[in-house]
TrEMBL record, chains A, B:
Organism: Sulfitobacter mediterraneus
Protein name as catalogued: Transcriptional regulator
InterPro entries: HTH_MarR-typ, MarR/SlyA-like, Tscrpt_reg_MarR-type_CS, WH-like_DNA-bd_sf, WH_DNA-bd_sf
Domain HTH marR-type: 9-141
SMART domains named among the record's database cross-references: HTH_MARR
GO BP, one annotated term: response to stress
Pfam family, one: MarR
Keyword list, A-Z: DNA-binding, Transcription, Transcription regulation
Superkingdom of origin organism: Bacteria
UniProt keyword annotation of DNA-binding present: yes
GO molecular function: DNA binding; DNA-binding transcription factor activity
Length: 141, 141
DNA sequence: TGAATTTAGTTGACTTGGAAAGCAAATTCA
DNA sequence: TGAATTTGCTTTCCAAGTCAACTAAATTCA
C-alpha cells in the first residue's frame, strides 16, 4: 500500500485544516470592523441568494449545525439583521428573511469579502482557483 | 474586474469551509471510538514527529491557539497521554513529551486515520491528492 | 547592575458550540 | 378518526474556545 511513512502534514485532513484556519483568520480580521462573525455573513449571503429558506436548509447551506444556527439567528434577530416568519404551509417551519438593514449591511460587508477572496485568488495561478474549487468539492460529502 | 456576480458558494473561503466541515465530520466519527478529539490527535502526531516541542511551536504546528492548547494539554496529562517538562535552557519553556501510553494510543489511532485519509484520497484521481495539497499550501499563510 | 521591556505560557471571566432531550406540528396507518 | 411515528426547530446542560489579564523568566540597555 503506502510506500513510506509520510509525515502527517501531508494528510489531506491536515492540509484542509491548516488552510481553513488561515483563511478564517484573514476573514475574521476583515469582518471584525463590521462587528460580525463569519457564520453570520454566510447566513446573510444564503438568505440573499436563496428564497424563503427554512432553518434546516439554511443550516446545511451555511455549514452550521441546527442548534448553533438557532442561537446565531437569535442574536441576528436582536441585531435587527433578519427576522423569523412562520411558514404558512407548515407551521413547524421557519422562513428566515433579511431585514432592510440586514441587506444594507450585507452589501457593505460583501465588498470586503470579495476583496479578501480576490487576494486569496491572487495567491494562485490563473486557473488554479477554479481547479482548487473542483478538487475541494470532490472531497466534500 | 469581476465579469459577473458569482454565487457565494464559489468563494474559496466557502469551499474551504465546506471541505473542512465535511472532512472533520468523517474524522470525528472515526476518532470517536478512541474517545479522542481531532486536536488531541494532531498534538500526538506533532510530538511523535518533532522532537522537544515547546508549547508555542506545538500550538502553531497543531493549528491550535495557545490558551486552547494549554487546556487541551491539561486534559491529556490527566489522561496520561503526555507530560510536561520544563526546558533547562529556558525555564519559561515547556517541552511536551508523549508518554509510553500516549505512543501506544497514537499508533493505534494512526491506523484509523491513515485509512480515513486513504478513503479521502480515493475520492480524487491519482495525482490530484498531491495537487490539492499543493494548492492548499499556497493559500495557507 | 538593575529597571524596563519582551517573551512563554497559563488563568479567569465570558461566550460559543454541541449532543441529547424536549416540544409541537404534520403525517402515517390501524 | 385518533394513537403512534416522524419531522422541524429550540432549549438545556455541559464541554470547549476566546480575549485579555497575569506570572515569571529572559533579555535589553542606560
Amino acid at each position: 500500500m503506502s510506500e513510506q511513512t509520510s509525515s502527517f502534514e501531508t494528510h489531506i485532513s491536515y492540509a484542509v485544516a491548516a488552510a481553513h484556519r488561515s483563511v478564517n483568520q484573514r476573514m475574521t480580521a476583515q469582518l471584525k470592523k463590521h462587528g460580525i462573525q463569519i457564520e453570520a455573513w454566510r447566513v446573510m449571503e444564503c438568505l440573499d441568494a436563496g428564497e424563503r429558506l427554512t432553518m434546516g436548509a439554511l443550516a446545511s447551506k451555511a455549514l452550521i449545525n441546527p442548534p448553533t444556527l438557532s442561537k446565531l439567528v437569535d442574536r441576528m434577530v436582536s441585531d435587527g439583521l433578519v427576522h423569523r416568519q412562520i411558514s404558512q404551509s407548515d407551521q413547524r417551519e421557519i422562513n428566515l428573511l433579511l431585514t432592510h438593514l440586514g441587506r444594507i449591511r450585507m452589501l457593505d460587508i460583501r465588498k470586503d469579502v470579495e476583496e479578501q477572496d480576490g487576494a486569496l485568488n491572487g495567491l494562485l495561478e490563473t486557473e488554479d482557483g477554479a481547479l482548487l474549487l473542483k478538487l475541494l468539492s470532490k472531497i466534500t460529502v
